[in-house]
Specification:
DUF6958; globular; alpha+beta; 5 strands; three-stranded antiparallel beta sheet
C-alpha cells in the first residue's frame, strides 16, 4: 500500500504516538461519525453511535458492518485527540461534536 493510501491517526490515551491506517476506511468512518454525532449536550452513548453508524457506512468498505467497531473506536480516539469530539462527564460515556 502506498503512503498516500495511509493516514496517521492519534489516540487521546497515548499522546504523541501516531499510527498509520488505511485512508479510505478512516475517511469513510470519520465522515459517518461526524454526521451522526450531535453538536449539543448530552451527546450520544457509544451504543447509540454504533447503532446510527450502521446506516451511514459504505457497504463496499464495511460489508454488513464488518470491522466497523474497530474503526469506530479508532476514529473516536483520533477525533478526541484532535479536539473535534468531546467526551461528556457522564456514565455511560457520551460524545458530541465540538
Amino acid at each position: 500500500m502506498e503512503q498516500q493510501d495511509r493516514i496517521e491517526v492519534e489516540n487521546i490515551n497515548h499522546p504523541g504516538k501516531g499510527r498509520q491506517v488505511d485512508r479510505a476506511m478512516y475517511d469513510a468512518m470519520r465522515k459517518a461519525y461526524l454526521k451522526v454525532l450531535p453538536g449539543r449536550s448530552p451527546g450520544l452513548t457509544l451504543a447509540e453511535i454504533s447503532e446510527r453508524l450502521a446506516g451511514e457506512l459504505p457497504q463496499d468498505l464495511f460489508p454488513g458492518g464488518s470491522k466497523a467497531g474497530w474503526w469506530a473506536k479508532t476514529v473516536q480516539l483520533d477525533l478526541e485527540a484532535k479536539r473535534l469530539v468531546k467526551r461528556e462527564k457522564t456514565s455511560p460515556i457520551r460524545l458530541r461534536r465540538v
